[in-house]
Amino acid sequence: MNIDDVIRNRRSIRKYKEKPLTKEQIVEILDAGNRAPSAKNRVQWRFHVFEGEAKAKLIQVCREGIEKLPKIPLMASTANSYNIMDQAPVVILVLQTCEWGGIGAEIQSVSAAIQNMLLKAHSMGLGSLWINDVLFVEPQILDFLKITKEDSEFKDMLLEFGEKVGIEIGYSGPLVAAIALGYPDEDPKREPRKTVEEVTIWYE
What is the DSSP string of 163-179? Predict the structure, then answer.
């Protein structure tokens, strides 16, 4: 399968077969993520792989955490997302090192790693889903992982700089997303996409 076929044919998979993945398959996908470009070559991604009982405990943390939060429309998809994680044989939590206090370099690097992993999974005949609903329960997940949310040493400097030049610099925590992995049990159609002409402005 060439790279054009992988890019064009990859789909978000929300139904998985019970067939487990081998450790070799998972490592191959992780290796693809680890080969992504990273800002200043700092390799800002960190991968936490969950299977079996460990995955069940993670999902329990997510479900219990979301039940304690006020219900807002944006959270309507969380139950389904956690069900998908439950069904998939493998869930990978993707975290970032927070070095520059949310200026965006870390999350761009990590997003490139996630995309590499999704494309690699598809090239291997596997399905994947990029899941952001874990962000609603980031504190509970970090506590489960025994990870302390540490501020970047540059955070205050960047916030002050942003105020001076009139730009808004946010601060994102360590958790970026979860990836569900497994053998697909569906073949979804591609949703209509805008054309290149619709999303591009040329300057000559």
Answer: HHHT-------SEEEEE
- Return the residue matching tokens 């999303």: 199
Exposed (0-12), middle (13-18) or buried (19+): which is 87, by Cβ within 10 Å? Answer: middle
pLDDT attached to residue 108: 92
Residue range 3-186 forms a domain whose CATH class is alpha beta
* Separation between Cα atoms, residue 72 and residue 153, nearest integer Å: 34
200 vs 30: CA distance, rounded Å? 32
Grade residue 168 by pLDDT with cuts at 50, 70 and 90: confident
CA distance 65 to 83: 15
Residue 136 and residue 74: Cα distance in Å, rounded? 10
Residue (of 91, 155, 173) closest to 128 by Cα position: 91
CB 181 within 8 A of CB 91: yes
In the chain, what are the domain boundaries? Answer: 3-186
**How far, rounded to the nearest angstrom, does the alpha carbon of residue 199 sit from its chain's CA centroid?**
24
| Element spanning 102, H or E | none
Sheet architecture: strand order including 90-96:
45-50, 90-96, 175-182, 127-131
pTM for this model (two decimals):
0.91
DSSP-derived letter for residue 36 is: S
